[in-house]
Amino acid sequence: MREYAQAAALVKRCYPEVVFRLVGWIDDNPDAIGQAELDAWIMAGTIDFLGKLSDVRPAISDSSVYVLPSYREGTPRTVLEAMAMGRAVVTTDAPGCRETVVEGDNGFLVPVQDASALAESMMTLVESPDMVAAMGARSRQIAEEKYDVHKVNAVMLRGMGL
Length: 162
Fold this sequence. Notes:
Layout: H1 2-14, E1 21-23, H2 35-43, E2 48-51, H3 57-61, E3 65-68, H4 77-84, E4 88-92, E5 107-110, H5 115-126, H6 129-146, H7 149-159
Parallel strand pairs: 1-2, 3-4, 4-5
């Protein structure tokens, strides 16, 4: 998430009115973001920290674009939730994440650990509200076509010969 905060700071230089929210918690992994680092982003006005949420739907609903700069994932559930809610997606070109986004169709894929590319994609969307709406609609369509639980279960059951 460091790249997210770095990209947010870059975007805010040109568009100070844009709001960047972060959902999650402090991890005890030694490489994870520490409380002091998070506090610095909050104090600088770069990030609004929402903390750990039991229901992310209101946070996603309150956004226009969903951003997940991941290093590695399976298929990220949070991206699928954002797609189901009709949000444009910016995520990394990492396994799992790249399967959710069709570049330029429902969002953007950026290189892993590249805050500049992340900021560039975010600024493109800030400057193109019509693109945000179209990508969000396409995300919803992809979610219905590709990730509907009934369709996924049917494929799995067929694959198991059931």
